[in-house]
Amino acid sequence: MKVPRAVLSLGVWLGAAVLSAQVTAIRAGRLVDPATGATTRNAVILVEGGKIKAVGPSVAVPPNARIVDLSGKTVLPGLFDVHTHLCLGIKTQGGNGLPELLRSLLAATAIETDAYRAIQGVANARDMLRAGFTTVRDVGNAGNYADTALRRAVEDGLVPGPTIVNAGRIITPYGGQYHGLPPTRADIAQPEYLYADTPDEMRKAVRENIAFGATVIKIVVDDQPYLYSVEDVKTLVREAAAGGLKVAAHCATDAGAKIAAEGGVASVEHAYRATTPTLELMKSKGTFLVGTDFTRQAAHEMGMDEYHGWVVDRLKRAYAVGVPVAFGTDVVFEMPGETRGTLSIEFVTSFVEAGVAPAQILRAMTVDAAKLLGMEKERGAIAPGYFADIVAADANPLEQIDAVRHVSFVMKGGVIIRND
Q1: Where would you tag: which of 303, 311, 337, 389 has the fewest CB atoms within 10 A of its CB?
Q2: Is-contact 42 57, C-beta < 8 A?
Q3: For the domain bounded by 17-78+382-419, which CATH number is listed?
Q4: Distance CA 164, CA 233 (A)
Q5: Average pLDDT, the chain
Q6: Does the reported pTM lie above 0.90?
Q7: How far apart are CA 66 and CA 203, in angstroms?
Q8: Could you say which architecture CATH assigns to the domain 79-372?
Q9: CA distance 274 to 5
Q10: What is the pLDDT of residue 18?
Q11: Which residues pair with 136 in a beta bridge?
Q12: Domain ranges in the chain with CATH number 3.20.20.140
């Protein structure tokens, strides 16, 4: 007998409703609170409808609950990477320098179709989630809104992936981040970038991004000899705020970072050469540093070996000043035997080299990153009412931060992604 489509759809919906209504009880041997740096032993976390219902040592387990035994593990909130490019992957030739990197980037963005890049995004999103990153901010380089398509596919349950905040097309002065564009191919950097050089063009670029599904605005302040001014940045920030969005600013130089902070952006990305006075300005403005702090390996693969020393020094000074920091990686290269997730989690080692305490690193990867994204009341902690984004590892990252590189359990929105 042929079952009517409406009946099938109703059955699927009812099945999903039953699953979402089931209570899951997680027995946590050690439960870490990154906000306070405290560890609670033998806690129970009740999860229902994708969110945390109750948590604590005295929480009773309902008789019909599904039990997840993590009594031998350390349990903590899902991790954040707030500077990703899920829909971009380039095969670098390590050590060949920045010009070669730019040529590789240009080739990848000019040749690959948006459809293929969205599929790249699916693979990278899956691997980020399996590595413990339950929330990411994708800051562009996704062609003609492949990142919006990816975000929607994850939200609709079509593919597994982290919660995604996406930037759409990056707003820049004429030319984008490409140097030496041939006049016969002046359009080669589009649709990768939205050129905006006047206040009207800037406002239109922000509105176009919002119309096509961006949930954060990414701007480039200083990748050409001509920089956006403080007033330019303020125009972009005001227009984004009118649409309820924050602004992330690519700033490779100290001058760019200073302009971006004075212009009121939410975060300065990179800031490789930021001086201490600029870091102090960022602190006074509440501007987050997302340092994309290249490991030695990553810097070499990107052809920028000297950058590793710069970011370690800048990280030391940033923490000494007290700038708010959120963890972001900027991984776009590929390596045999590695995934986007395993490559991204390695960036913890740069923080370790900079002498940053494990508790501070964990904050940058959870509660502070959530604050940057405006999610501090729903993600970044294991607390009643928060989304059930939970990971577990053998060791306590408050004592051994290296533990985050070896998660064995991942839950996102109450759904178990992996449980080794």
Answers
A1: 337
A2: yes
A3: 2.30.40.10
A4: 24
A5: 92
A6: yes
A7: 51
A8: Alpha-Beta Barrel (3.20)
A9: 60
A10: 45
A11: 81, 164
A12: 79-372
